[in-house]
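Exam review. A common question shows you a sequence with its structure tokens and asks you to describe the fold in words. Practice with the pair below. Do the first one on your own.
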Amino acid sequence: MTAAVSRLRSSVDRNEKRKQQRSRLPAVSIAFGTLSVASFWVPGLGFLLGVAAVVCGAIATSRSAVIDDEAASLRALLGVVAGAAGITVSAIALFPMLADL
């Protein structure tokens, strides 16, 4: 009976360690990308948030914890795409503002 309990505890401990080792960078990348698209009209802010999203997503895809987890890998890729969209939209919105200067 005690052997079964100890095996159950060890499997629970392994699952908890896996949950603790998950990277938060994919979620941060998505958040920065979303904020960059939403704040494209603020000069420079959307661009900087987009760059931060791309950097966080790129770093996240290089981590082994994210490479092993397909969902986290896709979240990191979504963050990179959202960051690139934020950079693009911010650059397009910046051109008319520069014409007025």
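Now try the second one, then compare your answer with the model answer below.
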Amino acid sequence: MRMQLQGWDDTIVAMATAPGIGAIAVIRISGPKSFDVMNELFPKKDLFVQASHTLHVGLLKDGDIVLDEVVLSLYRGPKSYTGEDVIEISCHGSPYIQEQILQAITKRGVRLAKPGEFTQRAFLKGKMDLAQAEAVADLIASNTEASKRAALHTMRGGFSSDLSQLREALISFSALIELELDFSQEDLEFADRTQFKNLITQLKETTAALIGSFKLGNVIKNGVQVAIIGKPNAGKSTLLNTLLNENRAIVSDIAGTTRDTIEEVLNIDGVLFRLIDTAGIREHTDDAIEQIGVSKSKEKMRAAQVVIYLYDLLNMNVEELQQIVNEFEQENINYILVGNKADTATAAIMTQFVAFKNSMFISAKKNVQIETLKKLLVENTIHGNINTESTIVTNARHYEALVGLMQSLNEVEQGLSNQLPGDLLALDIRQCLHYLGTITGSITHEDQLDYIFSKFCIGK
């Protein structure tokens, strides 16, 4: 069952908008004293007789001191975000005015909210489950269309609906097995073991699909690390500048110009690619600083999800490129071979490299085939279209719980094959329900909640 924490019946207040100067700012107050406090500060109307979900314009006054002209939005619990009485104050965006209003509210016995406390109250009041609450933070942090849509899907209950179906199916069979235990003396079977085994197979397939979606979810949420590597003067910095459509990296004809890694972010079809321009890799150099740069380049290469190996078509031979490919495959590195300076290379030169897989030719300087390279990056990363109408797991905590669920389902399946008695099967089913409960928050504890909501911004 969802826990009910002590000490959550007070009233809290916080800025709901980002700090700094703006046209307006929003201050949110939630709890049993919301209307008492604001009725004292807003003398124009008696807020107690006003309908919920209405707006009211007037002066906010602390005694005889006018704080600001504001708009109050009234929300009576339980039909509010937190499930409590909530009032949102839209004031002018002066930091001084914001602070004056906050001080006037807090000196009347209202405390400043902790990070995520409004959403935490919404969870505790049953307005949303824990997966939905975490999706609120993901939505606030979303920086692409894909990440926004994935967060919205979960926040609206899409993921919770999938989990609910799993849970209901397990509970129905668990109840029958528990009933068998009550009639153990009569040696009766209420649960059809064959039907249950088929159900476990279906549940494993659904769980496996959710687990498998995490790889894509991680891409949507955190982006893709792409290391651009190659020999000095292959055109790596030029490629970075062309991809970004700006002069971010210094470009020159002097080999070894880039001594350190340069990182930039590029949005391609709703996916963030974190491009890393590395120092040129050559095995023998007497320059100590360049040696450090080469070492960092190799570290970035091994940590990247995709490596673009950029080579100069005019200064590369097939045997050397094959050796590089062999090294990538030995280290299980996901790579794309990109031959640069195609605008100056002859067809005969390019023909030598056509047989290499994951290969293409560009001109970074002339912006030739750059859009094709972008499409190849997306295809290499997500292997198809992002369908955020279905559930995509983006939260590492959810992923770990689903892995635990899969292990428990395997144990249930093995127990059925070994014809384990009902009491042992019931224990395994309870473990499955435990993992489902940790995702939705029906099974949780105070320390876990504090950790999860501490990562939220204040005011949400």
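Model answer, second protein: Residues 35 and 47 are 7 Å apart (CA to CA). The radius of gyration is 30 Å. Full marks require stating both points clearly.
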